[in-house]
Amino acid sequence: MLEIKSGDNRVGIYPALGGSIAYWLRRDIPVFYPIVNSHLASRSKQIIAAYPLLPYSNRIANGQFQFENRSYQLDLNAANGKDSIHGNAWQREWSLEALTEKTVTLSLTHEPNGEFSGQWPFSYFAKIVYALSENGLAVHLSFKNTDHEKQPVGLGFHPYFPRRDQVEVGFTARSVWNNGTDGLPQGRMSIEGNWSFEKMQVLKKDTVLDNCYAGWDRFAFIRWKYSHAYLTMTCSQIFKHLVVFTPENQPYFTLEPASNMNNGINMPEISDRGLTILKPDQELRGDIFYSFTGV
C-alpha cells in the first residue's frame, strides 16, 4: 500500500486492488468510510474506502449489450449474480507511474484476452491521479481507447462516507430514475419530497436509496452536524449523473459522480444517458475535487 500526506490529511492507496483508496484520514478521523467490500476484497480481505469506475458506472443488465451491430456478454460481477457492475478497473492491478509526498499516478492497460476477455471486449489505457492538499483531495481520471474499433465509455468514482453525527446532504438535479424490482432504471421522475436534496436533508438510519439522479449540477455538500465538519464535492462537466446509495441501518452512504446513467448502454433512446462513444486513440477525462473543513 502507498500513502500520500498533506497537512493533517493522509490517504492510503492500493495499486494492486483496483487503484482503490484504502483510507482518507484527517487527524485520524475518516473522511471516506472504510468498509470490507465483498467483491473488491474477495482476494485480499482489505478494507476499501473509494475506487474508480470505468469503463462504465453501475450496472449493465445481465451483463449484455449491443454495439455497432454486435452482441456482447460480460462476466457477471454484481452481488446479485446476474448483472455486470462498475466496469473492470476495480478488479485489476494498476501500475505505479509516479509517487511524490502529495500525489500518486497509477495506470492500467487492458487487453481483452485470456482471463480478462469477459471483463470488457475492447482494449484501453487508463490513468488515475490522486492529488492531496491541506484542504482536500483531487481525483483525475482519464481513459484512452487503444482498440482499433469504437467503444462505448463511461467514467465514475465510488467513495463511501461516514453516516454519523446527523449527517446532511444537499445537491440539485433535474430528475431521478426510479428502479424496478430488478434494481435497474424503470422510469424518470420529477424530484419532490424525500427524493429532493435541494434543501439539506438528514440521512436517517431508515433512509433507503439506490438511485441515479440525472441533470446533476456537479456540486454536492455534506455536513456532519455534531462534529462541525463539512465536505464539498465538485466535478468536471462530464459527470452529469449522481448515484445516491443509502443502505438501511448501515454506517455509510455513497454519492457517486458518473458520466453515464445506470444501464445507459442498453438505453439508446435516452438522449442524456451520458455514454461517450470513443473512436480509436480518443480520450475521455474527468476530474473530481473534494474539499473538507472541520475536525
TrEMBL record:
<dbReference type="InterPro" id="IPR014718">
    <property type="entry name" value="GH-type_carb-bd"/>
</dbReference>
<dbReference type="InterPro" id="IPR011013">
    <property type="entry name" value="Gal_mutarotase_sf_dom"/>
</dbReference>
<dbReference type="InterPro" id="IPR008183">
    <property type="entry name" value="Aldose_1/G6P_1-epimerase"/>
</dbReference>
<protein>
    <submittedName>
        <fullName>Aldose 1-epimerase</fullName>
    </submittedName>
</protein>
<dbReference type="Pfam" id="PF01263">
    <property type="entry name" value="Aldose_epim"/>
</dbReference>
